[in-house]
């Protein structure tokens, strides 16, 4: 095949190993635009530049596509964070800063916003997917942050408390600010603050609430 012919050939034909990612990217776009219930494999295929039959080579249905979208965009990140926490020798406060910084950066990404809206709008119409998302994303994330806080309690960095409740409060605070920052015109108090400033304010508040020191700033 000549170079000119290769250049004209569809990208997915020249790079078949990239097809799954192309399909997943297209699925996320289609799900975000049309919702899970109304998304069609034909339209996902058009976005990805593949046929509906090609999608079936990798994914049996759109529910499986949704699971893999969540796996590749969120669960893989959680698994990486879990490994980092397990091997880290940093203080609990430093570790919590690291975890929540990465969490906030992801919360501010278009990928998370698309998945979050999709989950909140439709997931409970698909009980199996709701159970999957709850276990692999929500509960897994909570267990990870609870573990970091519990480590801080055991080391004396953080005051005695219910670590699971603290993790839930922390997650909610970061999640809502991450979403609000996407719509700053509706929240004037955020209009003059960068994402980095918002993150630092959240971390200062969280670490003050968790700290075992009297009169922590």
Explain what you see:
The protein has 217 residues and is mostly helical. The chain folds into 2 domains: 1-59, Homeodomain-like (Arc Repressor Mutant, subunit A); 63-210, Tetracycline Repressor, domain 2, CATH 1.10.357. It is 75% helix and 0% strand. The protein has 12 helices and no strands. It has helices spanning 3-8, 11-14, 19-34, 41-48, 52-58, 62-87, 92-107, 110-122, 127-155, 163-180, 188-191, 195-210. The radius of gyration is 21 Å and the shape is globular. It starts with a helix and ends in a 7-residue tail after the last helix. 24% of the residues are buried. The model is unreliable at 1-14 (pLDDT under 50).
Quick rundown:
The chain is mainly alpha-helical. The protein is built from twelve helices and no strands.
The helicity comes to over 70%
Number of strands: 0
The overall pLDDT, averaged over residues, is 88
Please tell me what the overall shape is: globular
Structural class: mainly alpha
Number of spatially distinct domains: 2
- The CATH architecture assignment of the largest domain turns out to be Orthogonal Bundle
Question: CATH homologous superfamily of the largest domain - what is it?
Answer: Tetracycline Repressor, domain 2
Low-pLDDT ranges: 1-14
């Amino acid at each position: 095949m000549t170079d000119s012919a290769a250049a004209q050939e569809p990208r997915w034909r020249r790079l078949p190993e990239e097809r799954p990612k192309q399909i997943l990217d297209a699925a996320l776009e289609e799900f975000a635009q049309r919702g899970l219930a109304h998304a069609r494999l034909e339209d996902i295929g058009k976005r990805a530049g593949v046929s509906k039959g090609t999608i079936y080579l990798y994914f049996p249905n759109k529910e499986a596509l949704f699971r893999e979208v969540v796996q590749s965009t969120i669960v893989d990140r959680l698994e990486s964070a879990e490994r980092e926490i397990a091997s880290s020798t940093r203080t609990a406060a430093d570790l919590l800063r690291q975890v929540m910084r990465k969490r906030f950066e992801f919360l501010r990404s278009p990928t998370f916003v698309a998945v979050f809206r999709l989950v909140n709008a439709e997931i409970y119409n698909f009980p199996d997917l709701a159970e999957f998302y709850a276990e692999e994303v929500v509960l897994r994330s909570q267990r990870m942050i609870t573990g970091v806080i519990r480590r801080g309690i055991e080391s004396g960095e953080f005051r005695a408390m219910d670590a699971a409740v603290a993790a839930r409060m922390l997650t909610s605070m970061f999640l809502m600010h991450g979403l609000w920052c996407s719509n700053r015109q509706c929240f004037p108090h955020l209009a003059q603050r960068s994402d980095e400033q918002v993150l630092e304010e959240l971390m200062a508040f969280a670490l003050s609430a968790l700290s075992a020191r009297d009169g922590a700033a």
